[in-house]
């Protein structure tokens, strides 16, 4: 945001920027900008020697740092500690940032979106793999102990085969370790976040931070956009992306767009998987709930997925519409939203003029900026959002790890009793559901929403119920399939092998659908 005048109010919508290494040599220019800043902050009794706004515009168009000490970053772990507490409660946290030579990720986001949502997604992005590895390691240790009979267990009669001596230790250890690592892991990646890397109360530091925004964007390896439908409405977000495209020849490659809609799907999938998996381990196999829990769980996940995907595709359609009619005059700016009044009622200068002037220097005229936004920017966004299947396979698999952990308990029970053929059958059954059928059902639901989201609302309702029904039928068909295989094939292991072979067919179709979307 452009430097505010006399009193020092916190910025309403600070924006992130990147710095370039060579900016240390531009001290003359930096001095001129500081003079211009002081002129802007003066009472106006003495006119500045040159037009300070023009000096600012010229400076920002250079995409440089005011001073190397303003190339700042915070570790992702620090920014996200306690579910991004510093960010959520808007406490002064400039002291968490530090001078750095390299910024890994520049976070671009709209302040209109809930910090909870952004923090949830960022925790999955930065801590998901660490949580996966730590929990997997822990669960494997528990598996070994369980196989050796060193964990408490109870007897349970399965619907096929001899009784089991089983305990829910993998099912419980996995989510516990995963949750701990997910919450407490501190990623060392250096990121730029406006709230932390720009001082919110010291006006001098705030102005320096804002003037070094371009330099910080130019220095970041990648830009991570926390995308929702308000993002494209914000002038500062557009400016950040324009700066990134301007300063990076390979910008598209290093642009990461994370739609914030997906984290509820991951959370729902994970905990439904946990409930169903634990139910299968703890409940007697002939308990009615153990048969329907999987189908009910799948139905719940389908509901969540379908709703999120619908929102996602509708917002993409809205994005295309907005980009087609894109006008700089429609882009919103916090200063204009607040009628150019600071938190204490003081006047605040408008950012709009400076930002548009800077972009005019890069692209020509306002019409050309709009044209660039609706072509280059839109192409980048379309390639990242529309050109890809929204839910990657690895994400679907990672979200349902509790299903795998429950299978590990069953495997341990078979291994403990030295029922090796049954143990091998558990592995095949796990691969059929965990790797093939459950991701396939999620893929089919996503595709169905994609094909039908633009139809009339009455037809949408029909399609939605059809997709729910189809998901339930697929799940029930899978469960019946296991039993049919065992009915016709006497050997337990062979029955599971045939079922695994059958499950490859929907998995293949789902893979084709995902790769066709890419
Ligand atoms: Zn304004």
Automatic annotation (TrEMBL):
Residues 1-29 are annotated as: Disordered. The keyword Membrane applies. This is Uncharacterized protein. InterPro entries: Toll_tir_struct_dom_sf. Residues 1-13 have a biased composition (Pro residues). Residues 17-29 have a biased composition (Low complexity). Keywords: Membrane, Transmembrane, Transmembrane helix. The chain crosses the membrane at residues 121-154, 166-185, 255-276, 288-305, 391-408, 423-449, 469-489, 495-513.
